[in-house]
Amino acid sequence: MHPFVLERPRDLSAVLALGAQAGRNDAPVEYIAGGTDMVQLLQENVRRPDRLVSLAGVLDDGIEIGPQGLRLGAAATMAEVAAHQAVIEQFPLISQALLNSASPQVRNQATMGGNLLQRTRCPYFRDVGYEACNKRVPGSGCAALDGENRWHAVLGTSDDCIAVHPSDLAVALVALDASVELRGAGGDRSVPLSDLHRLPRDTPHLETVLEPGEVITAITVPANAAGLRSHYLKVRDRASFEFAVVSAAVAIETDGGRIRQARVALGGVGTKPWRLSNVETALAGANFEPAVLRQAAALAADGTRGRGHNGFKIELMQRAIVRAVEIAGARA
Amino acid sequence: MTAALIGKSVSRVDGRLKVTGAATYAAEFEVPNLAHAAVVRSIVANGRIASIDTAEAERAPGVIAVVTHRSAPRLAYQPHKGLPDAAVGERLHVLQDDRVTHQGQPIALVVAETPEQAVYAAEVVRVTYRNEAAATDVESVDPVLPTGKPAEWETRRGEPDSAFEQAEFRVDQTYVIPRENHNPIEMFATIASWQGGSLTLWDKTQWVHNVAEEIAAVFGIAAENVRVISPFVGGAFGSALRCWPHVTLAALGARVAGRPVKLVLSRREMYYGVGYRPHTVQRAALGASRDGQLQAIRHEGHQETSTYEEFTEALLSATRFLHSCPNVHTRHRIAPMNVHTPTYMRAPGEASGIYALESAMDELAVALSMDPVELRLRNEPDKDEFKDLPFSSRSTRECYRAAAERFGWAQRNAAPRSMRDGRSLIGWGMASATYPMNYAPASAMARLLPDGTAEVMSAASDMGPGTWTSMTQVAADTLGLPIERVKFTLGDTRLPRAPIHGGSMTMASVGSAVQAACRKVREDALARASANNIEEAMKRLGQAIEATADVAPGDETKRFSMHAFGAVFVEVAVDPDLGETRVRRIVGAYGAGRVVNPKIARSQCIGGMIGGIGMALMEHSVVNPRNGRVTNANLAEYAVPVHADAPPVMDVIFVDEHDPHVNPLGVKGLGEIALVGVAPAIANAIFHATGKRVRELPITPDKLL
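Output (structure tokens, whole complex):
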């Protein structure tokens, strides 16, 4: 573990002055919140910041529901949000995604902001015994392309990186049109969650649009996403405490036996949380006939690229969408 | 008189210590003036160290010493082969030359004031390599016969080739099990402290005496000068049978630093620093007549091993006697590769070999349109046809009957995909299980004290099966004392020698020694005091008396074939669209001789069942064929079963079995057989559920789409 100075600023303005940057490995100053991912990365010598800025006690941890929708303070824990009654009632997709993540111990510690900024589980990124990882060492190559890549992405990939974004929460939130509120030296701004993470392209070491010094202060979910019939489906090798092989977040509005509008996002398959507007368009107006759902879900395969061991995900994710829509549609 | 304790469900005597954190594990001993070590490991699979620059590491804060092959003391490495060591080859020598033969090989050691300082300094040791072509792809290495005694590697009875060709019904398939790691929750840890020429080691081990003897041989000192202390082991599953290179490194670091040194492996290092269940490829061919009589079995398999040792396990042993068949051929080969040496993992050999055999039996039952239990009953042998010896006892029929009845097997619809629950496809499958009865020389000492308490001891180990408790039971039962008056001690080379804590032999061996020592001291006390109960005798004697006993097997192995047998029945639910398999019920019946503590024995069997779920559905050390690194060397991506994977119904049946031949206690051991048969029963159930025969473990969702 690279030695670092732990900064413990007293308030947010002191945090901003330190100029930390999340999500890039060459940043000399980084944030730590719950630390459930960061501590592992430090211990494994993957992250080597000189300074680590603790966000403990300086960020909002509130959970509010109002006419504008849902606002989650960046410091709210996964456990708190998952168990929040109004979240369960109006945004069950979020609660479900959280309860399908990690373990109770991790959820007690991990925060909303940290969850969105957790780093990929790509084993080549996380094992410094591999010299090639463009995300960890820009320009060094990608060991996953022709390595063991069952865990890897089939959507949004490039010839430089096929690492999956691992968050379940982000998949649910992107389906619900969530945004993140950022604060930086230049003031506040709001960014749609679908724009927070960058595609890897030829710069996989740049993971988000956060500027140096910027911090996520809250997540907002618009009110029009409330009350939808939804389901978060997670396929994995064991029953719990595992990252998704494939996951599907689906929220639908129904009209009799038909889907009026649908929101569909996938996890475990994309280099970022992956929203599928083409599938959504095809589902709008559709009934729940398996063949109809199947046809709409097939559009998810557009633009996919398998790399060997992960090719099965292209079929599995379509089946996951169908199942999630069926379950959501069957909800009262 | 106290009530009989052998056969009673006594709770763990060390349970409170463990759940309150008061049990002391290897890394937790407080040793004054302790320094800490970290290991630099190779990131190539084959080659030589071209350069190793330690300047920055030596300047790093808190660093006491940086040891490389250039600076390390030359170690004696005298010949020593312990039971868990590979019979052929030479163990890895650490820091003695520039040769690298596998990923993760120790190539330097840092000793520092704190663990963090040691780890940091290890990270800034700069190494360059001269790479050489490495054999790291198990699929491209040609297997060869081991060089040991040939009869064991290839066996033949009857005319297996022609009998197979002539058989009316045939199955001939290949089954693959990938490398698996034990993944005990406790990391390997050693504290080494020299006092002149003597060494004390606090170590995670399943055999303290072997560690003492191995380290004595490595350093060229007398084994009596090495004391090994290991009272608690936080799980091992065989991984702590051998004495691994990190123990040598800890002792080496302590010698160089002139201070006690602690070395704790990280979770990632656990995939490189200790062995693993080897990748196996097996071809099983069965031929049978229309009425289900086996005519021929041809079973061959090979497994990965290192370039420096020929590790082998009992992959094909059970094939030679489990089912009756006149024509049997087995051939066991190894694939030497640029990997570190595999080792024994729970039910080594049997778990893997029986997965192939019992999967093939299921395929044969399908081919014959015969119930798989009926197929096994039709091939029930009346003796060990390989050794031509009678079984000391064999309760397979009763196991099939009892487990099938409890499971409700008679309700099974034999057609694949015929049973459903909602969307889920339900499958019922079964398999046979067996594991040899092992009984080895063991010693124990019992001491009666005037206050009516007793101290009993043997240098045994308890990696979880309950040695602390079961030995206390046997001692108290034999002495005729209440259990709370008996204190059993284990895990120290100063105690009477016990055999290796593996091969399901601890209860048979140490238990028999404890019983003998307690019987001896009790008879002695009663005779000397002319008393007829032990409390009265001790009061009269007014001083402690003790007895030591040694037990050893006689010629029973020449007269009998001795094994535990079992049957495992499983219900799975498979999501036909998403490919997820969840095990819903397991019923296991075991004929394992006498059961000393049904509560702990059941716990051990449940653990085996859950381990079998892991083997069948998720466990897989994903070795990158390009360079030999373990891609998922952590507990997030190497999936082991979690609570939610354990089925709500795990039913364990111990069939009544009295075997006077095996050992004085009449026990056969349970630790390993509990895992055997689970993986094939699950695979067979998945076939029944889906109609898909998956012949490569683990059966993950992608294989069922």
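The radius of gyration of chain B is 26 Å.
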